[in-house]
Inverse folding.
């Protein structure tokens, strides 16, 4: 399994714990890494996803409400809700680096592992509706067209939850 998939899965586990734990997010993060250490790359990417998703939770839930007409966000299972929030955060922040189809596929695969086949179908439908509502391209081939219209330069998710601008000397295709 790749580092980004591992980071997404760890981010899901942390966000899931935060759903039921009143402790500050930083305490949950500290406890998670102490309990189950991870590579620096995995930790950095996971923390960026967790902090960004937590910081924009209300915005993400609003987007999910609009995309899941027959489901209230509060009625979704906690695992599915966390997977959807993570994926929507990535769709908002990472589409200059990753094709929306890749982000959606990663969410589907994680849903299969942590929630089941039916949940994966549900997540696919909701995320496709989100992708359309955000005006994102359907296939990787169309990403170049979308990128040319995007003013934001490619970057990486920082542990603080923001985007790190591409630095001079970064090579194309280099993974954070």
């Amino acid at each position: 399994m790749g580092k980004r998939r591992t980071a997404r899965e760890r981010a899901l586990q942390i966000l899931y714990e935060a759903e039921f734990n009143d402790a500050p997010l930083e305490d949950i993060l500290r406890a998670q890494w102490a309990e189950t250490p991870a590579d620096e790359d995995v930790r950095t990417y996971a923390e960026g996803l967790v902090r960004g998703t937590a910081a924009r939770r209300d915005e993400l839930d609003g987007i999910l409400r609009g995309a899941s007409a027959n489901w209230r966000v509060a009625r979704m299972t906690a695992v599915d809700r966390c997977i959807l929030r993570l994926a929507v955060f990535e769709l908002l922040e990472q589409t200059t680096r990753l094709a929306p189809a890749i982000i959606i596929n990663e969410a589907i695969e994680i849903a299969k592992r942590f929630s089941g086949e039916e949940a994966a179908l549900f997540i696919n439908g909701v995320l496709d509706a989100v992708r359309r509502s955000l005006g994102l391209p359907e296939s990787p081939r169309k990403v170049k067209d979308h990128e040319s219209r995007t003013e934001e330069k490619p970057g990486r998710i920082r542990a603080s939850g923001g985007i790190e601008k591409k630095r001079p000397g970064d090579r194309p295709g280099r993974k954070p």
Summary: The domain at 3-165 is CATH 1.10.940.10 (N-utilizing Substance Protein B Homolog; Chain A). The first helix runs from residue 3 to 20. The radius of gyration is 16 Å.
